[in-house]
Design brief:
The chain has 228 residues and is of the alpha/beta class. Helix content is 47%, strand content 15%. Strand 5, helix 5 and strand 6 form a beta-alpha-beta unit. The structure holds adenosine-5'-triphosphate and magnesium ion.
Length: 228
Amino acid sequence: MPVICLASSKGGVGKSTSAVLLASELARKGTAVVIIDADPNRPVATWARRPGKPANLTVLSTATEATIIDDIEETAAQVPFVIVDLEGTASMTVAYAISRADLVVIPSQGSQLDAAEAAKAIRLIRQQEKAFGRTIPHAVLFTRTSAAIRPRTLQHIKSEFDSHGVPAFETQLHEREAFRAIFSFGGTVDTLTGSQVSGLEGAVNNVRMFGAEVVAMLRRTKDKVAAA
Ligand SMILES: Nc1ncnc2c1ncn2[C@@H]1O[C@H](COP(=O)(O)OP(=O)(O)OP(=O)(O)O)[C@@H](O)[C@H]1O
Ligand SMILES: [Mg+2]
């Protein structure tokens, strides 16, 4: 049921990477997952053609502006998790997808310029909330951050989002070779081997934490809606 969109008009912040990591982690836990690859370049469909994609993870790669809402609704009626990877521009497809989301994940690298782009995505979400008269849960996901150091700039950006009521994930998707490697070799962090890439254990733990936090966030927002 839940529809999770990865959105940011900034290119290259890790939307597709995060979509594949999250979907693979949910699939590993045994549920069926569909990724709707709504980017006209179809990066997730290209990944899915390589070996190692979990059998219970399907990629739908025909979505267009004209079909995206129907694609999301039809898929959400059939499978427990739908993940929508969006293109890195502002488009009607992005706006439509957000309007149907149970959670919008906004990947952002930890710089002020990237934060400004994330703020654009948040403004779009708030417009869609008004247009559709419903709350659209969302949170910023810091990506490509260093596993070793916690820069002050990132702390500052986090507290700025916080002061504007914008939640951020506790988990950051660090800059990791394994997260690039899945797009070269195919598969997931669980099918990569130590001879293909180093630092696998850290990457696996990072993805586990991300998956668990998304599930916990969905649960919290569902409870809130039920209580309202
Ligand atoms: N956490 C990460 N660790 C290492 N490399 C990463 C990470 N996240 C993204 N990358 C790399 O950064 C580049 C852009 O990532 P990705 O394609 O996921 O971004 P995107 O937001 O989907 O881009 P676009 O807007 O073009 O769709 C890719 O080369 C990818 O391998
Ligand atoms: Mg992408």
